[in-house]
Amino acid sequence: MIYEKNMSIPPLLDQYRALPDNPCSTTQSHELRSVQVIKECDLPLIDLSGLTSLNVREREACAAAISSASSEWGFFQVVNHGISKELLGEMRKEQMKLFEIPFEKKASCGLLNDSYRWGNPRATSTKQFSWSEAFHVPLTKISEGASYGEFSSLRKAMEEFATAMSELARLLAGILATNLGHSRGAFEEICNESTCFIRLNRYPRCLIASEMSGLVAHTDSDFLTILYQDQVGGLQLMKDSKWVAVKPNPDALIVNIGDLFQAWSNDVYKSVEHKVITNEKVERYSIAYFLCPSYGSLIGSCKEPSIYKKFTFGEFRKQVVEDVYKTGHKVGLPKFLL
């Protein structure tokens, strides 16, 4: 079924204008100019076929490259990752069909377990507002209990996509754990279908793009994230205290380290601040997989002396929610430093 696209976009501008700090204010304009992108970069590119090479040195070099990029950048790209172009293309097609339905239907009909989100209801000012919409879906709800309505073909694509992403995430997490002298299966018990998520993202075109973030600057509250994005561009990350734009690669998936891996690795791996900028002319799509533990899982450092006090994922999430409620933004790991 085809819908008018302007009917499918949530009332982002109305919500934005209702917030304090008029976008035309001098302060707001200055803040936006001060975080202009410095340059476009090619993230470290890692060919994962090296992990299955018959040559021991090639396997070791590939694993070392993953660990090095996680320490130096907190971000890297992977090719030959084992997820077919056909599956990725099918997932993108289904995602676009889903977002094209009328906004009122997305917001009220309970699709995918009522997982639809848009804007930022907790924003306390315009600079904390995100010009985007998303379906944030627990893996356990993809196969069981999720309402797909007329989008029955989405279920099969999401099931295959979630399985493939889970395998890739566990492979990469295992390599990073091994690099620090721990078992490859260090996260197998605490990260499973009941704790991990897939997030379908859409960033509508924005006529006030120079004033607006598609997704405000943040770090991810997980072990690691795998991102499949289109070729529009817009992802930026903090490198050497400067914002750099990530150049899209049609053959690669993007991987980034989350807060929990930084804490567990005792700051060996870096959870890097990143954001998405808006585009005035075209919309952008992406899909993220989040490798998360259960809320009761204890996140201790892998070696002593530890930089962070021990905390559970539930305690971490509770602190994040409290900080966002009080200040409009996430504080994250600094709250757990010893």
Describe this structure in words.
The chain is of the alpha+beta class. It has helices spanning 5-8, 12-17, 26-34, 56-72, 85-99, 103-108, 111-114, 140-143, 152-179, 259-264, 313-327; strands at 39-41, 45-47, 75-79, 116-118, 133-138, 197-203, 213-218, 224-229, 235-239, 242-246, 253-257, 274-277, 284-291, 298-299, 311-312. The chain has an eight-stranded mixed sheet with strand order 2-3-11-8-13-6-5-4. Strands 1-10-9-12-7 form a five-stranded mixed sheet, with no helix packed on it. Helix 4 (56-72) crosses helix 9 and helix 5 (85-99) crosses helix 9. The longest helix has 28 residues, at 152-179. The termini are far apart.
Give a short summary of the structure.
The protein has 338 residues and is α+β, with helices and mostly antiparallel strands. Helices cover 34% and strands 21% of the residues. It has a single domain (33-298), classed as Jelly Rolls (Sandwich), CATH 2.60.120.330.
Structural topology:
Layout (H helix, E strand, L loop, with lengths): L4 H4 L3 H6 L8 H9 L4 E3 L3 E3 L8 H17 L2 E5 L5 H15 L3 H6 L2 H4 L1 E3 L14 E6 L1 H4 L8 H28 L17 E7 L9 E6 L5 E6 L5 E5 L2 E5 L6 E5 L1 H6 L9 E4 L6 E8 L6 E2 L11 E2 H15 L11
Helix pairs in contact: 4-9, 5-9
Distinctive features:
single chain; 338 residues; alpha+beta; Jelly Rolls; 8-stranded mixed β-sheet; 5-stranded mixed β-sheet; 11 helices; oxidoreductase
